[in-house]
C-alpha cells in the first residue's frame, strides 16, 4: 500500500484485527511494499481492480475465501466491491474517505456523473456506510445512500517520545501536492508576511502534480529561498516535532490525519474551513485557528499572529495536544469492532442455517 490516509487506516484496522487473532486478508489492486507496517500474520493478495474482468476477479477471490465480512475503502472501490459481491451473502462495510458532494475523478464531469449514479444504486446494498464526519453523515442520509450510516473518526496514535527541540521558526504543511490541498494558498500567505518575520521558513512535505507549480509560484513571489520542499517521509514524527506552526490550507478534506498528528506534538495549527472533518476537530481560537478556504490574506493574518507570539503558540499547542486524545486507538477501535460484529452476526446465522451447522464469523 502506498502512503495515504485511507491506506493508513486500512493498515491500522488490519493490524488490530490480526492482533486479536482473526484471519485477515488484505486485498490491494497494486503490488509493491507497504508504506505502513503490517502484522506478520496478515495475508496479502494483489487483485487488479481495473479493466475487463475486474469484478469477476474480486468475486472469485471472495467466493474462494468465504470471509465473514468484507471492508472496502474509497468511493470507486466501494462500488466495485458491492457490485462484485452481490448475491454472495458476504456482508460488506464500505468506508467513504471524503466529502460525498465533491467528486474528483479522472475523466471529468461525465465520469463523475456516472459514478454518482452507480453510488446511489449500489451503496444501499452495504451492511454499513462508515464516514469520518457529521457533515458527511448528514450528506449520506439526505442522499439516502444507506440506512446504517456510522460516523467513525480515524485512529490516531500518540506521538513517540522525543528530546528534539523545536527550532522555533518553521511553518509546516504535509500532504499530497495536488490542487485540492491548497498549498498555493500557503505560499501566497507566507509571501505577505515573510519580510516582517525574516527568520521564519516554510516546509512542505509531499509529492504530487503541483510540485513544479508551487516552486514556480514561490519564485514569482520572491520567497523561494525561504521555502523547503521535501518528499514523502516514512518517519515523519521528527519533522512535526521540529515545527512550531502547522498549516492545513486544503480546499477539500476527509479526515486530515496530518492535522491530528501535528496536534499530537503540540504544534499551533491553522486550518481552512473547507468541507470535511477539519472544523469538527478544531475549535477556532481554542486549540487552533480557522480561516476561510482560499483566503490567503486571512491565513497570512493568523500566521502573523502566531509568529509574533510564542506564548499564544504554546497555549494553542498544549490545548491541541490534550484535545486529540479522543482519537486514541482505545477510543476508536472498539467502535469498529462493534460495527463488524453487528454486521457479521446475521450473516453467520444465515450461513449456519443454510449449511446445517455453525459458521465462522471471520
Description:
The chain folds into 2 domains: 5-155 and 329-355, Rossmann fold; 170-325, Glycogen Phosphorylase B (Rossmann fold, 3-Layer(aba) Sandwich), CATH 3.40.50. The longest helix has 27 residues, at 329-355. The protein is globular, with a radius of gyration of 22 Å. The chain is 42% helix and 14% strand. It contains 13 helices and 12 strands. It is of the alpha/beta class and 362 residues long. The protein has a 6-stranded parallel β-sheet, sandwiched between helices. Strands 3-4-5-6 form a 4-stranded parallel β-sheet, sandwiched between helices. Strands 1-2 form a two-stranded parallel ribbon.
Key terms:
42% helix; Rossmann fold; globular; six-stranded parallel beta sheet; four-stranded parallel beta sheet; 362 residues; alpha/beta
Strand content: 5-15%
| N-to-C span | 23 Å
Task: Indicate the mean pLDDT.
Answer: 89
CATH class of the largest domain: Alpha Beta
What is the approximate shape? globular
Task: Give me a quick take on this structure.
The chain is an alpha/beta fold and 362 residues long. The protein is 42% helix and 14% strand.
List the helices and strands and how they pair.
Blueprint: H1 5-19, E1 25-28, E2 43-46, H2 54-65, E3 70-73, H3 75-84, E4 92-95, H4 108-122, E5 128-131, H5 134-142, E6 149-151, E7 170-174, H6 183-193, E8 201-205, H7 211-220, E9 227-230, H8 237-242, E10 245-248, H9 257-264, E11 268-272, H10 278-281, E12 289-291, H11 296-307, H12 310-323, H13 329-355
Parallel strand pairs: 1-2, 3-4, 4-5, 5-6, 7-8, 7-10, 8-9, 10-11, 11-12
Helix pairs in contact: 2-3, 3-4, 6-7, 6-11
